[in-house]
Amino acid sequence: MSRWAVILFLGVVHAGVRANVLSNSSVLVETVRQESEQQIVDGHRSGRFFPFYTIGRIANVPCTSPSGLSGTCLIAGECKDNGGLASGSCSTRTNQAVCCVYTKSCGGSTNLNSTYFTNSGYPGPYNGGGTCSFTVTPTSGICQLRIDFRTLSLVQPTGDGACNTDRLTITGGSPSVVPLCGENTGQHIYLNFVGSGPISIRVATDGGSSFNRLWNMELSQIACASAERAPVGCLQYYTDESGEISSFNYGLGANPGLTTVGTRGSRQLANTNYGICIRPAAARCSVTYSLPPTDRYAFTVTGDASAIDPALVGTAGVGMTGAACTTDYIIIPNPTGGGSDRYCGLGIGDVTSSARPFVVYTVTNGNETPDVANRGFRLLYEQNACAAV
Ligand SMILES: *[C@@H]1O[C@H](CO)[C@@H](O)[C@H](O)[C@H]1NC(C)=O
Ligand SMILES: *[C@@H]1O[C@H](CO)[C@@H](O)[C@H](O)[C@H]1NC(C)=O
């Protein structure tokens, strides 16, 4: 049957390993530029030299269930055999095809695309005390795992950004990811599989802290040859022409926790260093980043956010750039109009950059001294038309 005859392309397994600690912006940007050129080279190479293989009985036609969940179009019997739930029919030429949705919880594993990993009791909350793990093994021709946090609500970090009460750790993939906690609904990450090795996701919760934990992570396998694959160096990858990006655990309201020196804590997670990339849209040559107009604390990255006149928070005048930013900061490469590519402090003006790839780096150190009540950042982005020549 032709619907099972899926031709897969075996590309190069490209496990981009990059240095985790990069203290110099120009070095960091250069590293990513080289990696992205390298990836283009690899793409050509896989296209030219690697043969086609036919892998039988891989049904990987995606579908969407009536309630909006991602599934795979299968005959009802195979869906059941795979432990999936038939959720509406799907539009292929075959008879009796169903949109098969996989939902699994603690202790599970999968090699099937579009699997949802939830807390036990989901959609009800989990009150903590246990550890819950899930493992994803790639099939042939798969290079990346995209994890969409449809819901991810865990206990806030300490005031210094350490996930000590609850922690989500993801191991086995590349690059490595710091433990996550707090509110991350709507965030996502991309990881490279390392060869055919699995990626493990583990949520550890402290039963001593009463809190309604909730998670539902959509796990999508991305083929090596797919246009959906994130470029090397991008832990996050946004594909819309405009949208918003934010730091992990960004949210309204301060962290109730205190820093080690007893001041109001930060929502920023400690020891992060990653790229947030944006896919260039057709005929778009630059990106402008700006603060959301109604979210006053949307750029509170270093400094004392509680001591400053609320009318000034967010404005460029209370922002800092360049060598003044050494602990927590973002990098927007080659900003238009010159000036430093590093930003921190309690505000930021609009920044436009035409450097490729379109990327914002975020770096945080291990504590929040002497910062007070920081939230991290949330920036709107908008791609701009190429100038007429
Ligand atoms: C950053 O790296 C560039 C290029 O390697 C070098 O010229 C510059 O001196 C470095 N700056 C710092 C502060 O290390
Ligand atoms: C996995 O599913 C997603 C949609 O949920 C799709 O974009 C992706 O191409 C699928 N991967 C493969 C290898 O079919």
From TrEMBL:
Transmembrane segments: none annotated. InterPro entries: CUB_dom (IPR000859), CUB_metazoa (IPR058698), Sperma_CUB_dom_sf (IPR035914). Gene3D superfamilies: Spermadhesin, CUB domain (2.60.120.290). This is AGAP006913-PA-like protein. Residues 106-222 form the CUB domain. PROSITE patterns: CUB. It comes from Anopheles sinensis. Keywords: Disulfide bond, Signal. It holds the Pfam family CUB. PANTHER family: CUB DOMAIN-CONTAINING PROTEIN, INTRAFLAGELLAR TRANSPORT PROTEIN 122 FAMILY PROTEIN-RELATED. Residues 1-19 form the signal peptide. SUPFAM superfamilies: Spermadhesin, CUB domain.
